[in-house]
Amino acid sequence: MTHCPDVAPPTPTSRDLTLQAAVDVLGSATSVTVLCHVQPDADTVGSGLALGTALRRKGIPVQVAFAAPAELPVSMRDLPGTDLLVAATEVATEVDLLVAVDCGSAGRLGSLASRLGGARRSLVIDHHRSNTRFGTFNLVDDTAESTTAVLTQLFDVWGVPIDADLAHCLYAGLVTDTGSFRWGQAGTHTLAERLLATGIDGGAISRRLLDTHPFGWLPMLGSVLSTAVLVPDAAAGRGLVHAVIRCTDSAGLGAEEIESVIDIVRTTAEAEVAAVFKETAPQSWSVSLRSKNSVDVAAVATTLGGGGHRFAAGYTTAGPVEAVVAQLREALD
Ligand code: AMP
Ligand code: MN
Ligand code: MN
Predict the structure, then answer these.
(1) How many angstroms separate the alpha carbon of residue 107 from the centre of ligand 3?
(2) pTM of the prediction?
């Protein structure tokens, strides 16, 4: 065996933490920026606001932000703690600790990934299977239903009492990331019960986050669902169903309306995989993928530069619609 005294061992740049070690990092911070992912959903915002609220209660200066779009989606505006949110341009360029919540990779921070360089340390709190461990420290539990479920465990170790305001934020992530408890696991309902026992109105939270759309949603669905195509021989014969949302379809509508479409398309019995191509600018696409049992769409999305969970993933791509559909079909075969 060759002895190589000149070769230095690799410098450990990133470390997975226990809950207690993550609490120690948070508790010792002198200033914190909490970043949510771009095109934020209720799990990243609920996590960001819950953590921001807990830090504020400890007397630690904290900002919470996401890079895009400029405004918080309408359905999330009554979450407690929104006064902690600052515009992306207002996020401090230097901070003691940057915490990313519900972000599988640095790219999910959008333009605010630039703030990683100005942070003395960073902590990634997440539950994505595809997480790239981009923090100095990482608290990643890919068995957790939501990032808010990971935060609940963190709060328990930290001794943060979960009152109705924190429970509202934590429940928001739990109910949305479990598809209204459709794909909960052992422990999911116990957590929900604990949060509901603080007095929050679970029905009202779910209705606001998941079951409220402006009237314009209905004609948009009519137009978009008429683009649906079933490709039975795709995904090695397991079947693919896809639909396309053009900018012209979604004009004037919010993220909630656009994100709702995949939940209809994915119900197609003949297809194991569902995809919705969401046009973000001419020939630019954000793609939602869903599968039922046998296809790991996180792996598929990762090969296309994205990521996600086994049965729910996404990526961005560019080109004419025929080309991006063909690209996906190829990645699935
Ligand atoms: P969505 O279809 O947007 O609800 O996303 C489903 C899952 O895929 C979520 O867990 C996202 O975090 C992940 N995801 C979506 N888009 C991307 C992307 N461009 N890059 C990495 N992960 C993504
Ligand atoms: Mn998310
Ligand atoms: Mn999540």
Answers:
(1) 15
(2) 0.94
